[in-house]
Amino acid sequence: MGVGYQLVNWSRRERISFAHLPVNTRREICGNPVSASIVAWYLATRQGDEVQFVPDQGEWPFPHGSFEEALTYIDVTDLVIQELIGAQILRDDGIEWADTDEPDAVYIRAIKNIWMDGEP
Length: 120
What we know:
Elements: E1 5-9, E2 14-16, H1 26-31, H2 33-45, E3 51-55, H3 67-70, E4 74-75, H4 77-86, E5 90-98, E6 107-113
Parallel strand pairs: 2-4
Antiparallel strand pairs: 1-2, 1-3, 5-6
Helix pairs in contact: 2-4
């Protein structure tokens, strides 16, 4: 499995973990229309912030802090998804998959990018 990434905003002490989305690597994040929309929206609405993709392995990209510290930042993945739903870019279709042993903790959300489809 490849290196996993989170989007970390040092200025606001926030992060996008992509929790419960079917993405983890750079390629998956960029290639998935939902996660690509999340990143674009986040960067466009928080201009001027110090934001970097941070790998779960390897070199820390900021001149300060650490990956462990970033894990304590508030995860705004759900907040940004809600912003995009409000902007009629994404739609939440519930749960796509859930683990039979831990369905409340281990699941993948069924989020769809509807902007290009012209769906309401």
